[in-house]
Design a protein that fits this description.
This protein folds into three domains: about 240 residues, BirA Bifunctional Protein, domain 2, CATH 3.30.930; about 60 residues, no CATH class; about 90 residues, Anticodon-binding domain (Rossmann fold), CATH 3.40.50. Helices cover about 35% and strands about 20% of the residues. It has 15 helices and 16 strands. The strands form three sheets. It has an eight-stranded mixed beta sheet with strand order 1-5-6-11-10-9-7-8. The structure holds adenosine monophosphate.
Length: about 450
């Protein structure tokens, strides 16, 4: 029979790597809590229409990357409908904001999420079909201050803090403003006009995008198109007074907080709902991501709630690619340090198994991390297993059980000593310094 494997573009995350994932998520939770964010968990699948309306029919995500199926109804009261595995989480969060009338509180909503997203992309390093995002959204009615430039700067400063705390080195923040919902159509019209005489000389993708979604031409990486793209009109010249002032305030607040950024006029991002501030954090070459060097992206989406049939609710958010963050940390920190267990308990003979398990129970209750061997192992096998897994080995033989004095082998110090059962937990703890945190 053919062996079954994880589906292309999906992968298993195994220990010890999952320890790093947990540390990243714990750091995110701790940083986000300091900024007043609470966790939201939305369903992994939603009505297809949510993404078609929210993310945009013309985007790559909706036009070719979604996992969509016709879900059959199970009863007359439960009609069939088109469902989609979420390709991103902002649309779901805004749907939940509308559904639960969170705006009625009049308070700013600060929500974060951690979870898998699904896109049918061509798999490569740093690009998977199931990948994880850690994201956050700040939204609310305008009177809650949700469209203030201070929010944009606060979110960016929080991201800088998170990346520093989690240990990413050399990150860069690229920043732009794509203007309001009135600036953008004027800019897009100008782009279309400027593309008309030059598009036939551009790559196939650009030719198509010039028609369907001219903003996406700015994302093109084709070397031969770069000079043409650089000569196209810049969004900065099409911002109205209000958008210009908003962007200036974002930059001033970032300067006040000492968060470095580079204004990148071509940064428009792939999703239709962005307005005004857009941003991306990248890492330098050699950080384990190859060409996929975008760690995270985000921006403001002042009209999204209305696009989904909700009340006016300006907002800003981001999504960190957790898979890419992990690859970066691994590349920048070198090999993941494996934390060893506090002790390995080796019963000498199967008849000592119950006593060994009872000792393990006692030590685990005392908060120590313990593995237990099996009495059928020869001493050499116990030593080898213990040395791989733990910092120390505790021998449980007939004499030890009778006397309550145990033999403890410390692999680091290369010493063996006798310890009374009463002092065992304290001894294992005292001589078990934590490995320094990664990286
Ligand atoms: P987006 O939702 O497209 O703005 O992406 C936000 C972040 O999610 C990106 O900067 C990536 O780090 C990450 N990301 C997007 N697509 C993938 C994917 N297919 N595999 C892994 N990470 C991804």
């Amino acid at each position: 029979m053919a062996t079954l494997k994880a589906v292309r573009g999906t992968r298993d995350l195994l220990p010890p790597e999952t320890e790093l994932w947990n540390r990243v998520e714990a750091t995110a939770r701790s940083v986000f809590a300091r900024y007043g964010f609470g966790e939201i968990r939305t369903p992994v699948f939603e009505a297809t229409e949510l993404f078609a309306r929210g993310v945009g029919e013309e985007t790559d995500i909706v036009s070719k990357e979604m996992y969509t199926w016709e879900d059959r109804g199970r009863a007359d009261s439960d009609r069939g409908q088109s469902l989609t595995l979420r390709p991103e989480n902002t649309a779901g969060v805004v749907r939940a904001y509308i559904e639960h009338k969170l705006g009625d509180t009049g308070m700013l909503q600060k929500l974060f999420y951690i979870g898998p997203q699904f896109r049918r992309e061509r798999p490569q390093r740093g690009r998977y079909r199931q990948f994880w995002q850690i994201g956050a959204e700040v939204l609310g009615p305008a009177w809650s201050g949700s469209d203030s430039a201070l929010r944009d700067a606060e979110v960016l400063e929080m991201l800088a803090t998170f990346l520093n705390e989690v240990g990413v080195r050399g990150w860069q923040l690229a920043l732009n403003s794509v203007g309001s919902s009135t600036d953008r159509p004027r800019y897009i019209a100008a782009l279309r006009e400027a593309l008309e005489p030059v598009k036939s000389g551009m790559c196939e993708n650009c030719q198509r995008r010039a028609e369907t979604n001219p903003l996406r031409v700015l994302d093109c990486k084709e070397a031969s198109d770069q000079a043409t793209i650089d000569a196209l009109p810049k969004i900065a010249d099409y911002l109205d007074e209000e958008s210009r002032e908003h962007f200036a305030q974002v930059k001033a607040a970032l300067d006040a907080c000492g968060v470095a950024y580079v204004v990148e006029p071509r940064l428009v991002r792939g999703l239709d709902y962005y307005t005004r501030t857009t941003f991306e954090f990248t890492v330098p070459d050699g950080s384990g991501l190859g060409t996929q060097n975008a760690l995270l992206g985000g921006g403001r989406y002042d009209g999204l709630s209305e696009m989904l049939g909700g009340p006016k609710a300006p907002g800003i958010g981001f999504a960190i690619g957790e898979d890419r963050l992990i690859l970066t940390l691994q590349a920048q920190a070198g090999e993941t340090a494996v934390k060893k267990l506090d002790a390995y308990i080796a019963p000498m003979g199967v008849e000592q198994n119950p006593a060994a398990l009872a000792l393990a129970q006692e030590l685990r209750r005392a908060g120590l991390s313990i593995e237990v061997g099996d009495g059928s192992f020869r001493l050499k096998k116990s030593f080898d297993a213990a040395d791989k897994l733990a910092r120390k080995m505790v021998i449980v033989g007939e004499n030890e059980v009778a006397s309550g004095i145990l033999t403890v082998k410390d692999f680091g110090a290369g010493e063996q000593s006798k310890v009374g059962r009463d002092e065992l937990a304290a001894t294992l703890r005292a001589s078990s310094p934590e490995l320094p945190d990664l990286p």
